[in-house]
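Lecture notes, part 5. Sequence design as translation. It can be helpful to think of inverse folding as translation between two languages: the language of shapes and the language of residues. The source text, in structure tokens, appears below.
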């Protein structure tokens, strides 16, 4: 028999798996070109050419023992140094290799940091809507995820509710901007106010509250919007980054954590993250990818491809009567479902062969997520279905 805890995880993950299976079944039935799967956040834009070149360069020009061998659990020092200097160039920070831990994607980084920080019963606060896996990552270490209700006006975090929800047991607050599922970028005003609340509460309870910034979508922004670099606003910030979306490499599992030397208990935290990387069984982030991304720190995917999708989908859906906050980043659109029950609405969309994810999977009922990291032509083919769906509700 499997563990009771895993029973729960298995039960809760079945909805997404069911959707995946359903998509496959529908494609067989109607033909793949007639099924419009907007359910997955799998990048559709190709990785930039620099990635292939870097991989070949590493394989052909670097020492194979170095490329394929074990290393420090935190990752190659020269790679970490390059990353630190690149962050410094971009954001005016002053990191070095001792502040960087290479991770197995953002997911690996978040697990390393929660393993390092959480005692059973410690609380981690997040803002709805949020990436549903946070519940599992915090649960892995017997922490408790506390959810602040959504602010559906503009999907900036509800900071007054945050203030009420912080307790002596609050170990961390985790935010994600650009956000999955809304595409909203948290403004500098939001970050300044958030930092002020965290400083005030740390003093009130005489505790440390870490701010974890989960940033796999940092590079995917539109209209020249700026994403504030959080270590500059709040001393106890830890950044989790990944190249899954920024270079379209989700299967390669590569990312990093930034742990600034200013954070409370820095020496222990760095040691803990190093050991956590080892004992969680990662041992280290994939070595070939570590070496390759070091050559790609200025490489970019063509964000304009996502931008075209965003404009087409957003403008069309609005003209059909849907409501949605225009996303400034990531590749998601979070529409208000046309009936209160978002699961029923997703089922109604399925009748038009449109697969979208109910907002309740992200802690926000009454909405649905549309992932537009898909072919432009697929969106064009799906639009008549979205239009008919809206008409059914607006009769
Ligand atoms: N955090 C957020 C908000 C995400 O949307 C995702 C993936 O979709 C992850 C973390 C995990 O990213 P990775 O593939 O780098 O582990």
């Amino acid at each position: 028999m499997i563990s009771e805890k895993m029973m729960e995880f298995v039960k809760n993950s079945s909805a997404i798996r069911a959707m995946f299976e359903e998509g496959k079944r529908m494609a067989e039935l109607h033909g793949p070109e007639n099924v419009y799967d907007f359910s997955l956040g799998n990048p559709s834009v190709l990785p930039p050419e620099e990635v292939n070149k870097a991989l070949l360069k590493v394989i052909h020009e670097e020492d194979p023992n170095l490329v394929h061998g074990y290393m420090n659990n935190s990752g190659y020092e020269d790679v970490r140094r390059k990353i630190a200097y690149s962050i410094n160039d971009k954001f005016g920070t002053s990191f070095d290799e001792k502040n960087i831990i290479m991770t197995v994607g953002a997911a690996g980084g978040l697990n390393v940091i929660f393993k390092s920080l959480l005692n059973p019963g410690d609380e981690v606060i997040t803002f709805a809507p949020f990436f549903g896996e946070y519940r599992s990552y915090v649960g892995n270490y017997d922490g408790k995820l506390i959810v602040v209700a959504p602010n559906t006006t503009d999907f900036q975090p509800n900071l007054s509710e945050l203030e009420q929800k912080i307790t002596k047991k609050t170990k961390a607050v985790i935010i994600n901007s650009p956000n999955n599922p809304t595409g909203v970028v948290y403004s500098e005003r939001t970050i300044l106010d958030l930092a002020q609340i965290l400083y005030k509460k740390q003093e009130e309870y005489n505790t440390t509250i870490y701010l974890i910034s989960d940033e796999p979508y940092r590079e995917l922004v539109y209209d020249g919007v700026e994403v504030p670099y959080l270590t500059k606003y709040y001393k106890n910030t830890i950044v989790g980054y990944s190249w899954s979306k920024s270079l379209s490499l989700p299967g390669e599992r590569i990312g990093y954590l930034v742990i600034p030397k200013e954070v409370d208990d820095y020496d222990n935290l760095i040691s803990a993250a190093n050991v956590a990387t080892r004992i969680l069984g990662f041992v280290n982030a994939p070595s070939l990818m570590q070496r390759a991304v070091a050559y790609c720190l200025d490489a970019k995917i063509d964000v304009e491809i996502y931008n075209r999708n965003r404009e087409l989908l957003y403008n069309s859906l609005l003209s059909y009567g849907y409501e949605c906050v225009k996303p400034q980043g990531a590749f998601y659109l979070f529409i208000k479902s046309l009936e209160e029950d978002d699961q029923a609405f997703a089922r109604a969309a399925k009748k038009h062969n449109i697969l979208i994810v109910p907002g309740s999977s992200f802690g926000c009922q009454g909405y649905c997520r549309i992932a537009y990291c898909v072919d432009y032509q697929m969106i064009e083919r799906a639009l008549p279905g979205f239009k008919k769906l809206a008409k059914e509700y607006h009769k």
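The translated text above is only one of many valid answers, since several sequences can fold into similar shapes. Residues 41, 105-107, 131, 176, 180, 214, 216, 242, 244, 250, 255 surround pyridoxal-5'-phosphate (CB under 6 Å).
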